[in-house]
User: Fold DUF2249 domain-containing protein from Herminiimonas arsenicoxydans.
Amino acid sequence: METEISLNACGLQPPEPMELVLEAISQLQPNQRLRMLIDREPRPLYRILDNNGFLHTTQERPDYLYEILIWHKT
Assistant:
């Protein structure tokens, strides 16, 4: 059964959002997904995810927030 973990990083100043998401994905199990909400697009995160075995989708919402869904490649 797949589960989803939520992480709201809105309003946080760098590097706190990056630190939080890296900590969260370090504990992410293969049957889990992480849904991150942030108020700016975290472009540096994408390369880190790609290099560490994660896939992701990014959606810009009508309220100008970014919703990033992250999961293991396997």
Q: What stands out?
A: The two ends are 15 Å apart (CA to CA). Strands lie at 3-8, 32-38, 54-60, 66-72. The mean pLDDT is 96. Residues 3-72 form a domain with the Translation Initiation Factor IF3 fold (CATH 3.30.110.40).
